[in-house]
Amino acid sequence: MKKLMLPAIAFSLIFASCKKQEMKKDIIAPVAEKQATTLEKHGDIRTDDYFWMRLTDAQKNADVKDEQTQKVYDYLNAENAYYEERTKETKEFQGQLFEEMKGRIKEDDESVPYKSNGYFYITRYEKGQQYPIYSRKKDNLEAAEEIMFNVNTEAKGFDYFQLGGLSVSPDNTLAAFATDTVSRRQYFIRIKNLETGKLYKDIIENTTGGSVWANDNKTLFYAKKDPVTLRSSKIYKHVLGSDSALDELVFEEKDETFGAFVTKTKSKKYIVVGSYSTVSTEYQVLNADNPKEELRMIQPRERDLEYDIAHYEDHFYIKTNKDGATNFKLMKTPENKTEKENWVDVIPHREDTLFEDFSIFKDYIVLEERNNGLNKIRIKRWDDTADYYLPFDEETYSAGVYGNPEFDTDIIRYSYNSMTTPSSVVDFNMKDKSKEIKKEQEVLGGKFDKDNYVSKRIWVTARDGKKVALSIVHHKDTKLTKDTPILQYAYGSYGYTISDGFSTTRLSLLDRGFVYALAHIRGSEYLGREWYEDGKMLNKKNTFNDFVDCSKYLIDQGYTSSEHLYAMGGSAGGLLMGSIVNMNPELYNGIIAAVPFVDVISTMIDDTIPLTTGEYDEWGNPNDKEYYDYIKSYSPYDQVKAQKYPNMLITTGLHDSQVQYWEPAKWIAKLRDVKTDDNMLFMHTNMEAGHGGASGRFDALKETAEEYSFFLMLEGKLEK
Predict the structure, then answer these.
(1) If DSSP states are collapsed to H, E and C, what string results for 552-617?
(2) Is residue 390 exposed (0-12), middle (13-18) or buried (19+ Cβ within 10 Å)?
(3) DSSP alpha helices (H): ranges in 385-526?
(4) CB neighbour burial string for 409-448, b if at least 16 within 10 angstroms, e if fewer
(5) Nearest residue to 390 (alpha-carbon basis) of 405, 373, 412
(6) Checking DSSP bridges between strand 435-440 and strand 424-429, what pairing results, if any?
(7) Fewer CB in 10 Å around end: N or C, the chain?
(8) 44 vs 204: which has the higher pLDDT
(9) DSSP for 358-397?
(10) DSSP state, residue 677
(11) Which element (helix H / strand E) includes 188?
(12) Per-residue model confidence as pLDDT tens digits over 562-585
């Protein structure tokens, strides 16, 4: 694909007035042009002065920019230039911070090898290289290394590069893989012969990146995206060596509130086509030995019925919320009688325990649960002769099962870390209960000692009486007083739970006297499914209230003060940031809103925008007046008002498909127009990246150094 060529920064009308002042270092912020657009829904009229900032993909990718496109690029580049100029005093420190963070990382690191179908697979990095190398060894770890992909080579010439979706054929000779060079999560799928290194001519465009092989080693199933909305809606079947334009459509998801995906059971017996929405799922299967077979329904979709499937011997095992199992339970059904009336309980529903996931082995089933906010790993033999939990001793931590493709084994691999304990990968023998630590994360630099840091959980009483967990970590020498800087972080949407984990980059804040506080607010599933339900749709404001109440607690209890309290969140967590600064701007000295979802009402009304229709059951459908009114009442862009706001840094990516760049661009323009303070207000647009930021591991560190330097600048902690 042709790389996007960016025009030179054109200050024109935006920056022309500040040349003289720049000589005096009195730098004036860009002022976006106003072009009033009237928007009407349910008789409600809104005036959007910055609607013109929205560009189509065609406009962004055109070789010659039209007038509107040029104006948008000029504005984004002017904001970048203003940000760079106003923060240039931090640049040297950012470099120091980057080197400090990089210095903690083992540059020539590699993953713990995992075994699959006779090969050990390894992901490793070489010193100084940005991207991983994917390799494998046959039968044992002493065998010769076969390099499958050196992503450093593949990424040459691209400002952004992502390789993923690796799928090896059952006979181990072929690998399907996916690449994205724009950061819009629209992947090309290619196929490589692992024996010869040959790339086949087959190219499949606009996919999710994932693919699965049938057992014939020549048929590949994959999901294709709608080119406009990016909804994953069609499952195709490709035969090796054929023209992808002739690929057979296997399934089309016609309900715009659903997406579709394809996977394969761990037993390798079935190709699985799934359809999903926020509140409902549906699965169909076909025999992987016969890719020409028609799909067979497991259980037709029903509103508010969620289920996931796994295959074992002659049954499907099903994680589901059937029968009012709010926190989910495990059921099973004969593989030839799969409708819900045939499902029977295996692990019943529990009011105090969220059933999150399960893994099937020949002699064991492993259950991942969450109780009182903490991860639990439960080991259970199929013959019921053993049923126990792995022991974890810290007050708060993160643990999870991963990388277990082998079926006939007594070994389960899991990860463990906490806010003070670096990550470790552990192989646990489920039979004799012995364990082997395969790898402990190395923190280089010679300065890290886990005993220098302390963490704990605090339970904050929210305004409606609910108890909200606040996990904090800091250096043992940091005293908690009104002068202590605290960075409060949260997400709080989609039921996604951020566990209390370790971060090498965070040490750069902790070692400079910061406290890091992770708020487990409603909208996550930290305290079970009801915790999520109580923070979505018409309960969404509980998410924002919980965060604010945690902030007030930290101030009221003397942990910090509003002069030293900071907040950060990204994507839906950026919506959180936008809401809290409208609600209680006086609580915070500084905010970072990363790729923030802030123009909620306009985005949710427009079903041509990627992901919108699939979000109706998260935020509500504003085509219904009740939801329209509720969403508008908290939508950060719509609720900006003439008041004082804290110092703010807003980040975005030009090619973001999750939250379009124009949301933060419009937001900062409106904030700057009406706010009544002189606090810093910056926006930085990565003109080469999307929702996830930079693709290289070192470039990502530079972004973190940039963010941390903003907070440290506000605290006056920039070392020279």
Answers:
(1) HHHHHCCCCCCCCEEEEEECHHHHHHHHHHHHCHHHCCEEEEECCCCCHHHHHHCCCCCCCHHHHH
(2) buried
(3) 507-510
(4) bebbbbbbbbbbbbbbbbbbebeeeeeeeeeebebeeeee
(5) 412
(6) antiparallel
(7) C
(8) 44
(9) EEE-SSEEEEEEEETTEEEEEEEETTSS-EEE----SSS-
(10) S
(11) strand 187-193
(12) 999 999 999 999 999 999 999 999
- Identify the pLDDT of residue 406: 87
CA–CA separation, 407 vs 312, rounded Å?
A: 10
| Pairwise CA distance, residues 487 & 509, whole Å | 9
Report pLDDT for 340.
98
Report the relative pairing of strands 435-440 and 146-150 from DSSP bridges: unpaired
pTM, full prediction: 0.88
Q: Are the C-beta atoms of residues 334 and 344 closer than 8 Å to each other?
A: no
Contact assessment for residue 665 and residue 50, using Cβ atoms and an 8 Å cutoff: yes
Residue with tokens 């590699």: 110
Closest residue by Cα to residue 496 from 517, 472, 522, 470: 522
Burial 588-608 (b: 16+ CB within 10 A, else e): bbbbbbbbbbbbbbbbbbebe
Residue 549: its H or E element: helix 541-556
Interatomic CA distance for residues 193 and 656, integer angstroms: 33
- In 3D space, the residue among 364, 362, 306 whose CA is nearest the CA of residue 331 turns out to be 306
In the block, residue with structure tokens 């003439």? 642
Distance of alpha carbon 657 from alpha carbon 225, whole angstroms: 12
- Are 44 and 628 in contact by the 8 Å Cβ rule? The answer is yes
Identify which of 342, 365, 367 has the alpha carbon closest to the alpha carbon of residue 355.
367
Kindly state the greatest CA–CA separation across the chain.
81
Q: How many residues does the chain have?
A: 720
Q: What residues act catalytically? A: 571, 656, 691
Query: What percent of the chain is predicted at pLDDT more than 70?
Result: 94
Is 600 within 8 Å of 241 (Cβ atoms)? no
Tens digit of pLDDT for each residue in 202-214? 898 888 888 999 9
Q: How does pLDDT run across 512-526, given as a tens digit for each residue?
A: 999 999 999 999 999
* Burial environment of residue 539 by CB neighbours within 10 A (0 to 12, 13 to 18, 19 or more): middle
Type of residue found at 157? G
Helices (H) and strands (E) in the chain, counts: 16, 37
- Residue whose C-alpha is closest to residue 163's, from 175, 173, 171: 175
Euclidean distance between CA atoms 70 and 178, whole angstroms: 32
- Give the whole-angstrom CA distance, residue 650 versus residue 368: 36
- CA atoms of 259 and 252, how far apart (whole Å): 10
355 near 378, Cβ under 8 Å?
A: no
The span from the CA of 304 to the CA of 206, in Å, is: 30
Per-residue confidence (pLDDT) for residue 657, from 0 to 100: 64
Integer-rounded Cα Rg, in Å, for the chain is 26
Give the span between the Cα atoms of 183 and 204, in whole angstroms.
Answer: 17
